[in-house]
Amino acid sequence: MRRTSASLVAGTLVAALAWASGPSTPAVALDPSVGVADLTQDINQILSDSRLTIARAGVVVKSAQTGEELYATDAGKLLIPASNTKLFTSAAAAETLGLDYRFPTTVLGTGRKAGSLLTGDLVLRGTGDPTMLAEDYDALAAKVAGAGVKVVTGKLVADDTWFDSQRLGNDWAWDDETAYYAAPISALTASPDRDYDAGSVIVSVAADGDKVKVSTTPETDYLKIVNRATVGAETDVLIERQHGTRTVVITGTVADPYQEWVAVDDPTAYVSSLFRKSLAKHGVKVLGPTTTGGAPSGARELARHESMTLGELLVPFMKLSNNIHAEILTKAMGRKVSDQGTWSAGLKVSTDFARANGVQVINMRDGSGLSRRDGFSPGSIVQLLSAVRGKPWFSTWYDSLPIAGNADRFTGGTLRSRMRGTPAENNVHAKTGSLTGVTSLSGYVTSADGEPLIFSIMLNQYLSASPKDIEDKIAVRLAQFSRSAAAGDAAGLRAATGGATGDLECSWLKPAQC
Fold first, then answer.
1. pLDDT digits (tens, 9 = 90+) for 354-392
2. Is 83 a catalytic residue?
């Protein structure tokens, strides 16, 4: 996978050192009264924005060193968190599964092997690995061929029983079904690239003379493409899978190349088609049909692939706010703790973890925050962010959070275009969250004095365009906070948001537009 590559400026190193070691002694002697009144006044002024007149705003700021609450408004109110939910899911996964956790994908043979003939079934068994690419399934097929198997007399069995058969979250909107950020969840899935958007395929269009050429990544005949697009003076094209089908309909006009990430209807069936094609490519012929079911006891392992560790997966998961990773990890936690790969079992693990760490107001309906019935209070989020500082995995988890203004995609993540040129740049480590009428930003920032602060900003029920700039102004003001001197007038703060300010996470806008 791609790792973070941008060199951090000196201020970033100072901020990282302030947080990586967890609770520590203050960098300066702290006078609780100095600067706090000015901070309160400035945040109140920022929140007086007319866009929030009819909205709900909850904000909490806490000193990580003293435990002092520096600012709070509606700290205990239940608000929709959007992708701030992933703070709870990722922390519970680090605690429950461990940073060394890997997802194995195996190929098993039943029956007896006689020379190059396998008189039985070939079973592809998954445990939810969201990082599996078409090339990884091809490598598994090559290993089967390398084991001397040329003909399988039985069936190709797709074993996705590690998780249950519920593919979509209870509260997910039906019109999100074909979007890659709401792809179905399965123990057997595949990603089209190293963003690891499991359960989706990239559909690309380009003008080719007077016709529109269509291609997919990876190459697959699983989707049925209906191409009604025409070459035009501009690109104004819609690529959409029809509800409940494998059919992708393309309409509109194409001038320049364009691509869309499209969720498949059934990840297990899609993976089966990829694997069967790779088996044939490597000279392995399966005589029977493709079916689904559990591998029988005694089946012999022929090939194995193991994912990257959870510690490594946290980077694309949290930096790019990957919904599917969150839901797979939720079911994986349920499987480990109660031997049930279900949402209910996994959400109980996350909720129990949160409550064990002092969280009071919590209602988790999924692992990603796509549900509008998820609910947390800003005070609860700050409590979680405070509690996890003492965990042995905190440093790795903290590093996985998006970093404000850092242009490197796997460093800045969903904050890479925000707060550039301000004291928050390369300082704020925080999780974003966006749905229509919902935005949130929660995480850590180091003040002008070197004091670590924890914050949560949750804005709900606004009718304007997304007010992410309000979040940014507060975060910048926290980076300017000083116990020894006033930081200045809030009206003069620069938020330099840049990038997209719509109703979806920055990284959900494919290709990356921010």
1. 999 999 999 999 999 999 999 999 999 999 999 999 999
2. yes
